[in-house]
Specification:
Layout (H helix, E strand, L loop, with lengths): L2 H6 L18 E4 L2 E7 L19 H23 L5 E12 L7 H21 L2 E7 L8 E9 L2
Parallel strand pairs: 3-4
Antiparallel strand pairs: 1-2, 2-5, 3-5
Length: 154
Amino acid sequence: MNPETNLAEQNLVLPAAETPAFDYLPLSMHNGVAYLAGQLAKVDGVLPNPGKVGRDIDEAEAGRQMQLCALQSLAWLKHYLGSLGRVQKVLHLNAYVACTEDFEFISRIADHASSVFITAFGDENGRHARSVLGMMRLPQNAPVMIDLRVAITE
């Protein structure tokens, strides 16, 4: 199973890995686990449609941006590992949604990221534990962000 082929069959394409704007590593590895820093839905270095979900951003746009966050995570994994084929299993996803106090559907938005990983790596290796958190604000006024942990082959 080739993760990039699986994604392409669903018209999902990896973007270029976005360079961090601040002083941190986008990915670090330790004992067979890759830890990805928070990923925003940037396209060519620009965050499309910043704001809060439920006020400035609707659920559909938040889901689209969550999907972009997942694809950006895969772009970094490919950049560092050389191939997505080195990913053994997606272990844990943190999904963050900057939303109004009364917005109820943060888990549905997070499903857009989960779906990308299941598409790429299959049900057994792509399905993962996750936490979904509603936030007051995210970096750069982003509506969504994720971070990720994956098991890798050495």
